[in-house]
Every structure is written in C-alpha cells, then in structure tokens.
Design brief:
The protein is an alpha/beta fold. The chain folds into 2 domains: 101 residues, no CATH class; 283 residues, Alpha-Beta Barrel (TIM Barrel). Helices cover 58% and strands 11% of the residues. It contains 16 helices and 8 strands. It has an 8-stranded parallel sheet.
C-alpha cells in the first residue's frame, strides 16, 4: 500500500499562508495542557460575564474548527472543500448541553432544514444529530438503567421517539443517510435501541440510518455481531459510523467511583485493535453494511484502503466513506480525496457562545491524545518550509 499521507502540498492546498500560520499557532497552544486549562477557564469566565470576546474566538479557534454560525454561513467553506479538494461536508449543529423541550424541537427543526438544504447538493452526503440534542440525558439514562418511567416521562419519551422518526423518515424520503452520534455508556443503550428501531423501519432497501460505534468500548464488536444477527432475521441494512470515542476520562472516572467494570479498553493498542476488528467485520459484510470510518488514524485508514483494493471495491463505492473533523487531519482527508476515495469532513456550526463546549472538547482531546497535536504541528511545519523554498 502506497504511503500517501505525507504529501503536505495536497493536504494544505486550500490553506492560505495566513491560515497555515494560524493553524500552526493554534496547535502550538493546544499542545500545552496548562495553557488549554487556563484558556478554557478564562473563556468560560468571559462568556458568562458577557465580555466582548466572541470576535476574538471567532477569528481564531472558532474559524479553524467550525464552518460558521449558520448553515448558510458554511456554504463558502463547503464549496471550497468540494470544488478544490473533492472533500464533502457533514453539517453538524454542535450546540451541546441543552435540556428544554423547546431547544430539542429547535435541534430537530434545524436537522430537517439541513436535510432540505442537502437535497440538491452533492457535497453534503450525510446529515447528523446527537441523541441528547433530541431529548434529556437523564431520560436516556433512566431507560438504559431499566428503571420504571413515570407517566410524564413516558409521554416525554414518546416525543423523543417522534423526533427521531420525523428526521429519519425525512432522510429516507430524500435518500440522504443520517449519522446518529454516540455518547456516554450509561445512556447509550436507550439510544442504541431507538436507532435500531429506526433501522428496522427505514433501512429496508439501503442503509439510511447510521448508528455510531465507539470502539474504545471493549463490547462493541459483540454488539455489532448481535445486531447483524437481528438484521439478517428481520431484513434490514446496517449503517455504522465507527470512531474510537470521545469520553474516555469521564467513563473511567465514573466506573471507578461507582464500582462497576470499566467499559473502556485497557490500552490504546486494545482500542486500535477493536476499531480495526469492527471495521474489518463490517467490510467483510458489505453486502448488508455501510461504513462511515471516522478516524484520524493513518494505520486504520491504510487498512480500509487495503481491504478495498484487495476486494476490488471501487474507491468511490458509496458504502464506504472516510470521515475526519474539520480543522484536523487534512493530510488524511485531502490525500484520500485526491485518490478518489469518498471523504467527508464533520463541519460544526452554531452560535459562537453555544458551540464553545464543543470547541473546548476539541482542545482537550488534542491535548490528551498522544502524538496527535505534534503530528499536526510537524505536518504544518513541513508545509511552511516547503512554501519558502
């Protein structure tokens, strides 16, 4: 397999010199854990105190990791990625931590708006939503724990189910697949069961509804195999976004505090093996499954490329997509796209103030994932030096 990810000219061809320098500055800051903690605290304080810092955030970290404030705001970014780099976009309304019914309805309506927005655009192959964007975390948790719901909670859950159904039906009718994100283990079973209901209903001809497998969980391959068995019995296709996971520290702390078995793989190599095993299993069952391989890992990307090449699966087969986050791993995204693989960037958007929890998570993730930030810095440095030649 040719090693294609070291081509920084292709990786950063969409970035101007000033954008390249800004990225280098940001990842330099993110590399320093103490600065991330101080910056997070100061940002939260400034926003709560209603200090005029949104402009500064917008021109630095926000514009690097987000497409804009509204979906229309994202259009120039999406068009540029697709026309110049052959990279698609997944518009991600990245407002987190809401708890009111009005806010859940708003998230659903924005998702429906994006479905209509995407219908005539080749560069938006998927839409996405987060389970807790459509219902309260505590309600998912109570159902996951098998506790009896009150009458009011039963009615509330019916509304959550209706939100899922409304959006999944709209995607089915429009022929646009929908990615449903994964969250913490102690609420995830309720979300998994509900997403499976939607698969049974809307994945009869192809994979429209995609769940998410967080492969830092040691039980995910077993779960996938059980789901596969049910899919064969009931006659539906499986769509899965596979990722490593985003809540490791929180998961481990809770397991230790509450005295139950840690749901996370013991080591990073164990997580990598789980990811690659899940991906390989899905590829070997591509007749019934579609893969959205969400990864910033070069080895996993090469593995999927190799599987496709050995099996004679075309690079642009719609059952296989590679995905990365906007603002990260451009060396993977644009080099894959240059070789005609299907690639989509998760493109977050939303009001600056409301998207800050997402941005803080991105900064913390880059700080905690060994080697990720230094890799970004090395690639950016290589490209800066190449442009000076």
């Amino acid at each position: 397999m040719d090693r294609i990810f070291n081509n920084t000219e292709v990786a950063f061809k969409l970035k101007s010199d000033s954008e390249l320098n800004r990225a280098y500055f940001l990842f330099n800051m993110i590399q320093k854990e103490s600065l991330v903690k101080i910056g997070t605290s100061l940002t939260n304080f400034a926003l709560k105190a209603k200090l005029p810092v949104e402009g500064l955030i917008r021109t630095t970290v926000f514009d690097h990791f987000c497409g804009g404030v509204t979906e229309d705001d994202c259009l120039p970014v999406m068009d540029k990625m697709y026309e110049k780099g052959n990279v698609c976009s997944v518009l991600d309304y990245s407002v987190e931590g809401k708890e009111e019914e009005e806010q859940f309805d708003n998230a659903m309506n924005i998702t429906l708006k994006i479905i209509k927005f995407a219908q005539d655009k080749k560069n938006i192959p998927f839409v996405v939503f987060k389970p807790t964007g459509f219902g309260r975390f505590a309600l998912y948790q109570k159902i996951t724990e098998g506790k009896e719901l009150t009458d009011a909670e039963k009615k509330e859950w019916e509304v959550v189910v209706n939100r899922y159904d409304t959006v999944c039906k709209a995607c089915h009718d429009a022929g646009i697949p929908i990615l449903i994100d994964g969250e913490e283990t102690w609420m995830q079973d309720a979300a998994d069961d509900l997403v499976e209901e939607m698969m049974v209903k809307y994945n009869k001809e192809q994979a429209i509804v995609f769940n998410t497998l967080q492969c830092y969980r040691w039980d995910r391959l077993d779960y996938l195999k059980e789901l596969h068995g049910r899919a064969k019995e009931q006659g539906f296709y499986i769509g899965m976004k596979i990722v490593r996971g985003a809540y490791m520290e929180k998961e481990r702390e809770r397991a230790q505090e509450m005295g139950y078995k840690d749901p996370i793989c013991a080591t990073k190599p164990d997580t990598d093996n789980m990811y690659n095993s899940v991906m390989t299993y899905m590829f070997e069952n591509l007749d019934m499954m579609s893969i959205f391989a969400g990864t910033h890992n070069e080895d996993s990307s090469y593995l999927l490329m190799e599987l496709m090449n050995k099996a004679g699966v075309k690079h642009d087969d719609k059952r296989v997509f590679f995905g990365q986050l906007y603002g990260m791993s451009d060396h993977i995204s644009y080099n894959l796209a240059a070789h005609q693989y299907n690639v989509a960037k998760y493109l977050p958007f939303g009001p600056v103030r409301d998207v800050m929890p997402y941005l803080i998570r991105r900064a913390e993730e880059n700080t905690s994932v060994a080697g990720q930030t230094s890799r970004e810095l090395n690639l950016l440095k290589t490209e800066r030096e190449r442009r000076k030649m």
